[in-house]
Specification:
602 residues, alpha/beta, Jelly Rolls, Immunoglobulin-like, TIM Barrel, eight-stranded parallel barrel, six-stranded antiparallel beta sheet, 7 helices, globular, disordered N terminus, binds alpha-D-glucopyranuronic acid
Length: 602
């Protein structure tokens, strides 16, 4: 009877879906924290027997209990301590060759010691888990999270023990129609705990997030807002920008919020040429939180893109979040430095972080190096437009992307979609995303990668009802790859909207080291000629404010199966998957040098 009652109690908890998830903490990298990175044990659970019983009901006896036999006759058919280990953070596809193509559930377990401190809260933080996570601490469900590229965190103060703890995560990367992204996408479905895991220590009342934005009318002042984790009135927060000679204290209102204006005498604006960052210290009670903040303005004036009031051309490149050594998901400062060094070799001042929010190291490193960023949520291709859960998921990912990076000066564009099919349900879905993004952050530009809809007699006209919901008109075109490169010189372009234009993708594939005539598909000469024709063609587009050719480096994709050429790689990179520059790299580099000179003169 006891066992039956316990089962009922547990299943009630599971079905109640304990939700310890709390709003995302901003600036995690600079907070007091303990890392849970390192060796985790893992069990591959193809039929999710660690979660469901044989009638497909959630079982109270799941793997999340980390149960051990108490008596010789006890039957327990799993043992994490006998299971293999994986270094976390990492995707599983490149860490265990049996898992290269695997799409399904893996269970991860990490045992750790913790010493609780009086009056301190403990927040469990994941940089990202792809795609769905159920998180259990000491056998208790903290919550379920969906979305593979944004952070989430749980208040575990009442669950974490003084001494030995065990953390178990059920990770499932199965593709599903209702997911964001949906079942098909042209990148590798890297599953796992793909970014850092921390326990963050906070006071009972702490600074949850904040935002600093310079007045774009030219007044020498900064607008700021600070959110505490609780509706505590009268909490004093001291804001210090030493270099700006700002040192002021404000108190929170009954919602636990503070907002106001900070005046300054002199300030150097952040720019690609001079990526100036200012140290800021926020002090609440005995705790301080430091950050580095850059100030700049980004606006449009008709078809012009203005950074700090000066017209700019975005010399960009698209990038997938993949290590440069073939090792799967990029997730470290070193990965960021490597990928950005290649972009800088190309002459870039801008990167399109496709097709999902990249890790925070990438955005912060780009900010330090003066590289502007387009950040995007994976509303990609044929999303389940009429599913309310899908919209809610997309909004969550958008909110989490913005909340994580809203203090990064180099992020100038939030992108809400890529190559989505026209139609009423798509426009209803995307217009809500656009309005939601603007409600969260009115200081940045909204865009999305559209597609040219008509190209009769070489006249390409872009018409998209979403034009009124974006600040920058961006579109992908593949003249020379999916259409004949010899048509390029005959092409004319019509983008009938008085907004800046970015070509968010163009390009073609080549297998590094394969040489031949320029009409021979897959040769470097074919790709080189394609780039020559394309830069000549796009130079004529009225209002072109930038481009992010597809793509920096060859990347893994299950959709690219041509043996001896693709071998599960999309070969459109200007670098090979081994970091070798293809001939087209130099075409793009030369063109960007020309564009830089042209705009430096303006
Ligand atoms: C599309 C898509 C990319 C894809 C590329 C290609 O434009 O946006 O994700 O990889 O085309 O076909 O290589």
């Amino acid at each position: 009877m006891k066992r039956f009652l316990t089962a009922l109690t547990l299943s009630a908890v599971v079905s109640a879906g304990f939700a310890q998830e709390i709003p995302q903490l901003g600036n995690v990298l600079n907070r007091e924290k303990t890392s849970l990175n390192g060796a985790w044990n893992y069990i591959v659970d193809v039929q999710e027997e660690g979660y469901y019983d044989y009638r497909m009901n959630p079982t109270p006896w799941g793997f999340f209990l980390n149960a051990k036999p108490q008596r010789p006759e006890d039957l327990i058919e799993y043992d994490f301590d006998k299971a293999p280990q994986m270094q976390i953070p990492s995707d599983w596809n490149t860490k265990d060759e049996k898992l290269f193509f695997y799409e399904g559930t893996l269970w991860f377990k990490k045992s750790f010691n913790y010493s609780k401190k009086a009056n301190k809260r403990a927040v469990l933080y994941f940089g990202a888990v792809n795609y769905e996570a159920y998180v259990y601490l000491n056998g208790k469900l903290l919550g379920r999270h969906e979305g593979g590229f944004t952070p989430f965190n749980y208040d575990v103060t009442d669950f974490i023990k003084d001494g030995e703890n065990f953390l178990i995560v059920k990770v499932d990367n199965k593709r599903k129609k209702a997911n964001v992204p949906t079942q098909i996408f042209d990148w590798w479905n890297y599953g796992g705990i793909t970014r850092d895991v921390y326990i963050i220590e906070t006071d009972d009342v702490y600074i949850e997030n904040y935002n600093f934005v310079i007045d774009k009318t030219g007044k020498k002042q900064i607008y700021f807002s600070i959110d505490l984790n609780k509706n505590e009135e009268g909490k004093a927060v001291q804001i210090t920008f030493p270099e700006l000679k700002i040192n002021r204290t404000f108190t929170s209102n009954s919602d636990g919020k503070i907002s106001g204006v900070l005046k300054f005498k002199d300030l150097t604006l952040w720019s690609p040429e001079n990526p100036k960052l200012y140290s800021v210290i926020l002090k609440l009670d005995e705790s301080t939180l430091k950050d580095e903040i850059g100030f700049r303005t980004i606006e449009t004036d008709g078809k012009k893109l203005l950074l700090n009031g000066k017209q700019i051309f975005l010399r960009g490149i698209s990038i997938h979040e993949e290590k440069t050594n073939g090792g799967g998901r990029a997730n470290s400062v070193e990965d960021a430095k490597q990928l950005l060094s290649w972009a800088k070799e190309l002459g870039c001042n801008f990167v399109r972080l496709a097709h999902y929010p990249h890790n925070e190291f990438m955005v912060r490193e780009a900010e330090k190096e003066g590289i502007l960023v387009w950040s995007e949520i994976p509303v990609y291709w044929t999303i389940d437009w009429e599913n309310p859960a899908t919209l809610s998921n997309a909004k969550n990912q958008l909110k989490d992307m913005i909340n994580r990076d809203k203090n990064r000066a180099n992020v100038i564009i939030w992108s809400i979609a890529n190559e989505t099919p026209h139609g009423q349900t798509r426009e209803k879905f995307l217009s809500q995303l656009s309005e939601y993004a603007k409600s969260l952050d009115s200081t940045r530009l909204i865009s999305m990668a559209m597609e040219v809809t008509s190209a009769a007699n070489y006249h390409n006209k872009l018409q998209d009802n979403m034009n009124k919901y974006v600040d920058v008109i961006s579109f992908n075109q593949y003249i020379g790859w999916y259409r004949d490169v010899n048509d390029a010189p005959k092409m004319t372009w019509e983008i009938p909207y008085n907004k800046p234009v970015i070509i968010s993708e163009f390009g073609g594939g080549a297998k590094y080291g394969y040489h031949g005539a320029k009409n021979q598909r897959w040769t470097e000469e074919f790709q080189e000629n394609l780039y020559q024709e394309n830069v000549a063609m796009i130079d004529k587009i009225d209002g072109l404010a930038g481009t992010t050719p597809w793509i920096l480096k060859d990347f893994r994709s299950p959709r690219r199966v041509l043996n001896d050429v693709q071998d599960y790689y999309n070969r459109k990179g200007l670098f090979s998957d081994k970091g070798e520059k293809k001939k087209a790299f130099y075409v793009m580099k030369n063109w960007y040098e020309k564009k830089k000179q042209e705009y430096d003169k303006k």
